[in-house]
Amino acid sequence: MNILVLNVGSATLKFQVVVTDADRINTDRDERLIRGQIERIGGESIITIRGADGVSRKRTASLRDLRAAVDWLVGFVTSEESGTGLTSRGELHAVGHRVVHGGERFRSSVAIDSSVLHGIEETIELAPLHNPHNLRGIEAARAALGSGVPQVAVFDTAFHHTLPEHAYLYAIPYPLYRRHKVRRYGFHGTSHRSIAYRWRTLTGRDRADVRIVTLHLGNGCSACAIKGGASIDTSMGFTPLEGLVMGTRSGDIDAALLDYIAAKEGLTLPQVEALLNNQSGLLGISGLTNDMRDLLAEADEHQDRRAKLAIDIFCYRARKYVGSYLAAMGGADAIVFAGGVGENSPEIRRQICDGLQWAGLHVDPTANEALTHGREGRFSTDESPLAAWVVPTDEELLIARDTFRVIAGVEPT
Ligand code: ADP
């Protein structure tokens, strides 16, 4: 089955075309025909395309809105120029969408019908920045391919539906949960699920034997405690603002600070929230950048004090979460790193793991240095009771596989 995977943001559309079916899933032989992204939708858009040969190309097109962008994309991936081998729109058999928020209703991936659309609309107030784009993506795909092509929603929150009450409730008046569904939802669920699945494939374990802490460290960052293959706690909360230090997000802060900062700086509460989302984290502390690669360079080459401080706070917070999740699960078998930072920075991994020797984690420096650029493997010593791994996340592949499984009525393994 040829599946178009769409991940729609405010002005960016990420896409892939994946060939998958039951046999390919079982033998890990899914095929990626093309991937890329369209940026600056609404003007002169920049399109980056990477074909099956791994070669990246850039081009531009005037795409006035998302509908035009998806229509262009569907035309392109089925043209000879794309190199996919697809020759007509009819050869795209289904569309898989990343949908950020599934609220309490969506506990797994679902085929999109009018009731599901309504359900996603209902969660807009929980994810006002994301779900509207996802809905527009679904409408655009329907316009481009027709209503006969099945579409599937894969939710960022769904993997965390197994959180127990004591992990998802905040210690605030209970009626706020009943009345307004104020609770921890958690995000990055597709990523944590993808990492956990790959790790258990690599280590030959059954799902029930998976007891790990996954760290998705990219621009957005989150940690997840996975026990018996299920998410039992995660660092992002009601919104993706809570938890770890991120590129521009603060992660955990004292809630009383909102009012205090608003009063001192003459800001409204929404302005303070925007400050915590867009001007904080690595960018806020360093005053330089949200890009970890650049921060590491500044800290190393120019000994920039605040760049170093930002890195230290980032790693310290991550280590605290690992420690708390080890306590929550009564220990774990591995810490698994993923995301742009987690997959590419031996230095950050070393700093996070340094100080976890008490928990039985001993890093092999040579193995750690070797794991960059999409390589996967273990970087703790053979004797280390708690292992450390890098397992690159692959959300798009999981979205494609879920799309196939939902349409074919096959349960995930
Ligand atoms: P997103 O959350 O937007 O998907 P990514 O997972 O791509 O982001 O991660 C982006 C982050 O990964 C950036 O901070 C970038 O600097 C960082 N990164 C990428 N390569 C490296 C590297 N070699 N060393 C350190 N950080 C890196």
From TrEMBL:
GO cellular component labels: cytoplasm
UniProt cross-references to Pfam families, sorted A to Z: Acetate_kinase
Binding, ATP: K14, H216, L217, G218, N219, G220, D291, M292, R293, G340, V341, G342, E343, N344
Site description Transition state stabilizer, residues in chain: H188, R249
Note on how the cofactor is bound: Mg(2+). Can also accept Mn(2+).
Residue ranges of coiled coil: 285-312
Enzyme class: transferase
InterPro entries: Ac/propionate_kinase, Aliphatic_acid_kin_short-chain, Aliphatic_acid_kinase_CS, ATPase_NBD
EC number: 2.7.2.1
Location of the protein in the cell: Cytoplasm
Location, primary (coarse class): cytoplasm
Function: Catalyzes the formation of acetyl phosphate from acetate and ATP. Can also catalyze the reverse reaction.
Protein name: Acetate kinase
